[in-house]
Amino acid sequence: MTNQNNAPIYEAMKKHSQNRVVRLDVPGHKGGRGNKELRDFLGQQCLTLDVNSMKPLDNLCHPVSVIRQAEELAAEAFGAAHSFFILNGTTAAVQAMVMSVCKSGEKIIMPRNVHRSAINACVVCGAIPVYVNPGINKQLGIPLGMSVADVEFAIKQNPDAKAILVNNPTYYGICSDIKKIVEIAHKNNMYVLADEAHGTHLYFGENLPINAMAAGADMAAVSVHKTGGSLTQSSFLHIGKNINEGYVRQIINLTQTTSGSYLLMVSLDLARKNLYLNGKEIFAKTVKYAEYAREEINRIGGYYAYGRDIINGDSVYDFDTTKVSVHTRAMGLAGVEVYDILRDDYAIQIEFGDIGNILAIVSAGDRELEIERFISALTDIKRRFGKDPSGLFDHEYINPLVEMSPNEAFYSPKKSVPIEKSAGSVCGEFVMCYPPGIPILAPGEIITDEILAYIAYCKEKGCFMTGTEDMNIEWINIVERN
Amino acid sequence: MELWFTEHHTDDVDFSIKIKKQLYTGKSYYQQIDVFDSYEFGRFLVLDGYLMCTEKDEFIYHEMVTHVPMAVNPDIKKVLVIGAGDGGTIRELCRYDSIEHIDMVEIDEQVVRVCKEFMPQTACKLDDPRVTIYYEDGLKFVRRKDNEYDLIIVDSTDPFGPGEGLFTKDFYGNCFSALTDNGILINQHESTYYASYVDMVKRTHRRIGSCFPVAFVYQAHIPTYPSGHWLFGFASKNLHPIYDHKPKEWAKFGIETKYYNSDLHKGGFAIPNYVKDVLSEE
Q1: Among A346, A347, A375, whose Cβ lies nearest the Cβ of B143?
Q2: Which of A20, A209, A463, A466 could make an SS bond with A433 (beta carbons 3.0 to 4.6 A apart)?
Q3: What is the ipTM of this complex?
Q4: What radius of gyration, in Å, describes the C-alpha atoms of chain B?
């Protein structure tokens, strides 16, 4: 049994920094002396601790000492067979999952409302995504989870698929019945990969949806930096007992940096310790704040802050109550409009706004003040801008028509055409609003008039659009056909 | 031996008062609370190290936040006071028999308890039957009110610490809703003398101006506040602080004041050029 009070990377770095070792290695800022403005801005301590791998500090690509120990502690804390430190963002963790179980031409079942990183992985490794249509909540206009029947159907249609990818939860806080999905996947010799970019807290809080490792999933990508308190870009990739650790490490090392940041690593190490020791309390406080916010926002009228009330036993099997998702359409504003007003007029930055909803991330780092300000600002926005909702787009999810695999489409000969003239073509790149980063179009999908109308609407409402080669999203790359 | 209280007015300027005795020290959920007795200023209240009011000069602040709006709209009946745990604003309002009801919202009950015990000069009217005290966040209280108050006085601490939410646009917007058609909002508006306060004054003025059609700033001289030159905000839905000023009607109240008078009412809105410049900057 390891001791979760330990933080091996933290302790080794502390010891190392006290040794006053002469730095004749990289990084070249040499503890900040080589870049004084940066040192003064970020602080001496931060620059002192920005070091390279060395014997006493282990090596991320081939961990044998303190990083290895820290990974073992993380595995224990998260209930995994093994855990990897991922420093290229959860994007890298998601890609490592897909690439660990799928080779070129092999199928992976996933809901269409995955993060772009999952489809990106298919572009890179040539895996073929088989999309399960997530349910839609018509009133809210948000994609839900996968229903068990739809997953079963996809398995029956694609018995050769290697894996099923599950969002646990989605950005909006919605969980599929992951336990049941694991059961049927394993029965059919498929792996279950969980995108838990928004699910760190599920491992430590009480009365929250089940986490992927506890549900028996084979791999899970966990963005500790999102709700777990580590620095931006740091994540864990957890694996279960049926996955080969050495092979996964090789896959990770195909693309992950060889100059792993110790600032990111130590933040993961200390976040794991803090979550293990105090997580229960931290997330109880988070849920308390979120529940309070929901109650108060629903009292304003016109807004709908949804919670466990949208659970339907299938495509919304469970709901993550730490998320404060608010439907804004009924008071006549698109979510992205409320998102912009909150930032520009009230100096409140929330996580994102889409066509019909906004999402605020609440955490134990908040105080009553932040919650009260959010609620007060929503009250004032309704007073100032509230109007008749007619004329607003009423739903968000459009079923994709997949013509070819993302990999094939992305690497096909392409040509650039004005986006409004692209209907009927096969898309050669991504189009999405970021956040949430769920593709509206992915490579290989048919561009339709309905999708173009939706993209135009998103642009008009001020969504931050990304994905295309053309930075203005006025031209789009389509696959050239013979 | 000498005992001194020192407040940093800026990184490079200190303000110190020689202390006779410390009367109270304690920490509430929200802040550090101290009360001292001094030779020059009498008793004074300190929150998180910042001087809030002294017996010797509190009359200036409390008269200026109450009599100015009362002389513009003598018909004010229902008042909301936010903050004001020392009680000085309530004391001045209670001198008007015509005021029917005062809601006071103070986030920190301990401040009120301490002031009742150690600052009786200001806290003396907190038990007036017209006064109801709510111990909660002003931001939360006001967003549930609609068309209810003729006057809101924001007698807050500085825009950092527990008073932070009371300098936000969401708060001013909700105050607008809570006020009646003739409603007036008075707020503690900080000072522009030292550079470190300038941005906040500017932002606050802009935020109020974006919510209220009428928004002015007036001034007073408060010796124990940073620079001694202090500003207040006067905002309303339609009443103008000078054009609608009613000195004759106000005189009928027969209230004796130590600082405020009808000439000074007008003069208070005549502000120095450097303040005008700050307020008009984008």
Answers
A1: A375
A2: A463
A3: 0.78
A4: 18
